[in-house]
UniProtKB/TrEMBL annotation:
Pathway: Cofactor biosynthesis; ubiquinone biosynthesis. This is 2-octaprenyl-6-methoxyphenyl hydroxylase. InterPro entries: FAD-bd, FAD/NAD-bd_sf, UbiH/COQ6, UbiH/COQ6_monooxygenase. Residues 5-329 form the FAD-binding domain. Keywords: FAD, Flavoprotein, Monooxygenase, Oxidoreductase. PANTHER family: 2-OCTAPRENYL-6-METHOXYPHENOL HYDROXYLASE, UBIQUINONE BIOSYNTHESIS MONOOXYGENASE COQ6, MITOCHONDRIAL. It comes from Marinobacter zhanjiangensis. Its cofactor is FAD. The keyword Oxidoreductase applies. Belongs to the UbiH/COQ6 family.
């Protein structure tokens, strides 16, 4: 049998790759894990001295994501800087229909949470540095893949040095513009929405009260997600604003006061006056799905496998559930003396995650299309739908469970009822 340099090589040490590395070491001990990350690791990853920045990018975490991080013994750290979403308010500009969701209706302390990306990264790195089974190569780049009889050979470049590593399984976690996915010749299906997402932190005159606001407009959806850490606690929210290319250019050309005024026109006065508009980031929106998520010795996860519209905040949460499905496939391999890269093993990951992936992508895409249709009849139906969701308990419960990431979409359900309860 061929000797390999590592058992599992994870190409990409971002949130998805780092979470997978920790999950493998804590939930399926015994594997040697190597992480190849393009950016240098922080000199001191301990989060004890963390000072939140007003303009830190953030991620919405579903209730299901919290359960996953609890399984990894990471939630107690993350929760120190995570804002609970206790209410969700969904509306459409110019119409009276509204849907309101509340955590107490579902006997939970929160429907979800919002955490700074940098804080998530620091918590992960603080936990990962205690794992002797993980080898980090950073900054380094995984540049090429050659399939072997029982694994893969990966070309690595670190500084001026080029070398190869053999692995029983390669996990591609290098993002939506995955170079390794391209090198493997895995095609993607891409559907451009013709829109951009503008990301910024904003402050409001009135406190958000733990409410996430989803506002659909004739130009596209916007969301305000509550934040509690950093300056102006209770008054700062993360804005995700969907704009056409022309509207994006108009907003970026404005000064801070002009951006606040433009946002006020679209969102309204539920939170009083917008008083601050932070640094802007933006990126084009499209639905991207890889035609293959597994091959012998290779698995795709996170944005390398699928990238969603941010309208429902499900991208990272879907990725987390996929990671847990892959971890369970690795557990099956270990318990049955199989290679983690065996196609039988990786096919279990694909079969468990595919229904969840299809349902979540379909849910997000349908929201974009439904609220992007300008026909009056469709608009009236949307309005009736929002009213119906607010007054029909069964429909509202279904929608809330999907928003909370507890839909039972098929991922991470294989091993036991206990794991199924925790990971969904």
């Amino acid at each position: 049998m061929q000797a390999f340099d590592t058992d599992i090589l994870i190409a990409g040490g971002g949130l998805a790759g780092a979470t997978l590395a920790l999950a493998v070491c804590r939930l399926v001990p015994g594997y040697r894990v190597t992480v190849v990350e393009a950016f240098p690791l922080p000199e001191d990853p301990a989060p004890t001295d963390y000072q939140p920045s007003y303009d830190a990018r953030s991620t919405a975490l579903s209730w299901g994501a919290r359960r996953i991080f609890e399984q990894l013994d990471l939630w107690s750290a993350i929760s120190r800087q995570a804002a609970p979403i206790r209410h969700i308010h969904i509306s459409e500009k110019g119409r009276f229909g509204v849907t309101r969701l509340a955590s107490e209706e579902h006997r939970q302390p929160a429907l979800g949470y919002v955490a700074d990306n940098r804080w998530l990264g620091l918590c992960l790195m603080d936990a990962l540095r205690e794992q002797p089974a993980i080898r980090w190569l950073a900054p380094a780049q995984a540049e090429s893949v050659t399939t072997l009889r029982e694994g893969v050979r990966v070309g690595i470049r670190q500084a001026e040095e080029a070398f190869t590593l053999t692995s029983r399984c390669l996990v591609v976690a290098d993002g939506g513009r995955s170079g390794l996915r391209e090198d493997l010749g895995i095609a993607v299906h891409q559907q451009d929405y013709g829109q951009y997402a503008l990301i910024a932190n904003v402050s409001t005159e009135r406190p958000h009260g733990g409410t996430a606001w989803e506002r659909f407009t004739e130009r596209g959806p916007m969301a305000l997600l509550p934040q509690v850490s950093g300056p102006e606690p209770g008054h700062r929210s993360a804005l995700v604003w969907t704009l056409s290319p022309e509207d994006l250019d108009d907003v970026l050309a404005l000064d801070e006061a002009g951006r606040c005024a433009r946002l006020q026109q679209v969102f309204g006065w539920r939170l009083g006056r917008f008083t601050r508009f932070g640094d802007c980031h933006h990126y084009p929106l499209s639905l991207i799905t890889a035609d293959e998520c597994v091959r012998p010795g290779v698995a795709l996860v996170g944005n390398a496998a699928h990238a969603l519209h941010p309208v429902a905040g499900q991208g990272f949460n879907l990725a987390l559930r996929g990671l847990m499905a892959l971890v369970e496939a690795f557990r099956f391999a270990r318990d049955n003396d199989l290679s983690p890269g065996d196609l039988t093993v990786l096919s279990r990951y694909r079969q468990q995650h595919a229904p969840d992936q299809q349902q979540t992508i379909g849910f997000s895409d349908s929201l974009v299309r439904l609220f992007g249709d300008e026909y009056p009849v469709i608009g009236a139906a949307r309005n009736a739908g929002l009213v119906g969701l607010d007054i029909l308990p069964a429909a509202k419960h279904w929608f809330a469970r999907r928003a909370m990431g507890v839909t039972g979409g098929g991922s991470a359900r294989q091993p036991s009822d206990r794991d199924r309860e925790h990971w969904q």
